[in-house]
Amino acid sequence: MSGHSQQETGFIRAALGHPAFLAGLLLTALFVAAALVSFVWTPFDPEKMQIAAKLKGPSTEHWFGTDHFGRDVFSMLMVGARVSIAVAFVAVGIGIGFGVPLGLYAAANRNSLIDEIVMRGNDLIFAFPSLLLAILITAVFGPGAINAIIAIGIFNIPVFARLSRGAALSLWTREFILAARVAGKGAARISVEHILPNLMNLLIVQGTIQFSLAVLAEAGLAYVGLGAQPPTPSWGRMLAEAQTFISLAPHMALFPGLAIVLTVLGLNLLGDGLRDLHDPRIRRSRG
Amino acid sequence: MNMSKSLAAVSALAVALGLAVMPAQAARTDISVGMVLEPPNLDPTGGAAAAIDEVVYANIFQGLTRFNSDGEVVPDLARSWDISEDGLTYTFHLQDGVTFHDGSAFDAEDVKFSLDRARGENSTNAQKALFAEIAEVEIVDPQTVKVTLSEPNGSFLFNMAWGDAVIVAPETADNNATNPVGTGPFKFGDWVKGDHVDLTKYADYWGEPAKLDKVTFKFISDPTAAFASVMAGDVDAFPNFPAPENLQQFEADPRFSVIVGSTEGETILAMNNKKPPLDNIKVRQAIGHAIDRQSIIDGAMFGYGTPIGTHFAPHNPAYVDLTEQSAYDPALAQELLKEAGVSELTLSLKLPPPSYARRGGEIIAAQLKEAGINTEITNLEWAQWLQEVFKDKNFDLTVISHTEPLDIGIYARDDYYFQYADPEFKKIMEELNDTTDPDKRTELLQAAQKKIADDAVNVYLFQLAKTGVANAKIEGLWENSPTQANDMTQIYWED
């Protein structure tokens, strides 16, 4: 027990000495906070139109100005964060939920026919341009947040499958696994009880990175009109709608653009930082 | 040596300067015109797309009659005509010296061929109804054609002015889709798919020759790109500019003139009249009262557009202003919904790509929500919209602009997408077709307008404005769009 808490103190100390990680954590916290607060409070109703007050620049009343229908851009960004998080969270969840079991299964049955089928299937999805297939899926099943989630989720499956298979393969050769096998545990039990816990750090790091990619993919799909449908605010669609107003009301493009950039940057920094902090070699060299 | 060298330099400079100045002195004789949509083909007798007429009407192809810029029907290939007492026989006297662009002569034979082809059984004409009353086309002599109708039709000359009724030559008719051959002042030059169509001046044109030597129609669907290309001077005129929000900026710029006029586009919130609960007139009326037309015009069109209360163009002399009948009144809307016994109403709202529909639809959704009606917006591409809404009628609400001139007759069509076809309205339309007396026609047209407003078939939103922008030195562009056309025949550059 005491060893565990010592490890935690060490982690916190290391984290405090890692400015990129802190910046990432801060940006991510802002993003999550905006989404959470939007459930109980936004400065204005994000769907309320006031045509007379359209295209107003930032002011004390409308912090980020208003859009072409006179809606409050700040409120829309807050609710848009919610959509981004929901889509990215479920999409990464799909990736982990399907990808990790597949990867572990393939590693447990390495070099078997099943391993081949699983990994070549992954290659197939990998080889296909991801956004193109996402557009295909939403074009066939109709635009909407749910289909965007499924489309992005499918692309996360091979990422996690490959990652967990690779890591699991090297674990399978370790002595403690051998010990578990000698003790008579089956492959499935070893995968869940011994391999999965050792993959956790890796999955958290990759999950953070994939989360940022999913936020970006959602914005991209919404930009071409295949994400959440109006009137639900969505960052990508806000950016698309701002295009023709760029000379009249640049704030309409600036703020959603900044929101996407900062969120993706924040998640990437966080992911990188987590990797550094979990890697004992890097930690030691920094210490 | 030195002297001659500098002389040479000076003269070279003078030549260079002269060359540089020359084009500015002589007025330009070419123009590039921006269009949002590319035509699927270039045969106006074989396709419904407005973009076809926007390239070829009056430029390449001509009909017996034509619309002028005010929407009046004036003589074109028919120099004049006589109408018999009973209104059944039209004798057209054709222009002399007309040739097709392939050099062949135009005569009564071509007129008979074109009309028979358009009304024939195998006709692929998108507006076959225009020719429905024609019983027989006879050649009296090479310059005279007699058309006999099965019943009087007061709009026959109007019908013959449509782009779908242009005269084509039998030898070239089948290739018009890719290589149009007509009798107009411009002949077809080149078509680079996805980019542009070129027209060049036809030297042997029978009438007043065009002032331009070359016309290029460029297809730019993205509003941002359209804005950039006008600003950069890549296109000289954009008669239907897709982003009304940018017009202010053009207006402030002395290099450009902004041309705002009217079109034949009645923009409506179409309702599926046979689908419950929209089959209940009270629900339809409630939707009408829940909508504030002016804020849609302001919010979606930046103030360009005229509110309408029925499916009729306000610039038409027969127009009746019925906007008050469905004036914005959310309280009344809720009252009507209660009377209809409808609560917790959720309707689908399917929107095609044009910005009037996408933006207007969002505003409508917000307004309906305030009146207690929820909507589910789906943005569709054109092909999807045509299939789901127009063909399959799988929708509750949609926003669309009907841009054909004087098209109130669509309300009499059986099985049309908004599914009205009321027998009483059909009777008014039948009577209208049998009437040639102008006063009586006006009366009937007004009765028709009132009937569809009383029945609250659709919500009539606004008349689409023609918002164009052009280089300030271009003269002769149409201000209004009485038909789908970009008439280039009168256009010239000011010095």
Automatic annotation (TrEMBL), chain A:
UniProt subcellular location: Cell membrane
This protein's UniProt keywords: Cell membrane, Membrane, Transmembrane, Transmembrane helix, Transport
Residue ranges of every copy of the ABC transmembrane type-1 domain listed in the record: 81-271
GO cellular component: a single term: plasma membrane
Gene3D superfamilies reported for this sequence: MetI-like
Bilayer-crossing regions: 20-41, 85-108, 128-155, 199-225, 245-271
CDD domains (alphabetical): TM_PBP2 (cd06261)
Domain of life of the organism encoding this protein: Bacteria
Membrane topology, record value: Multi-pass membrane protein
UniProt family annotation: Belongs to the binding-protein-dependent transport system permease family.
This protein's name: ABC transporter permease
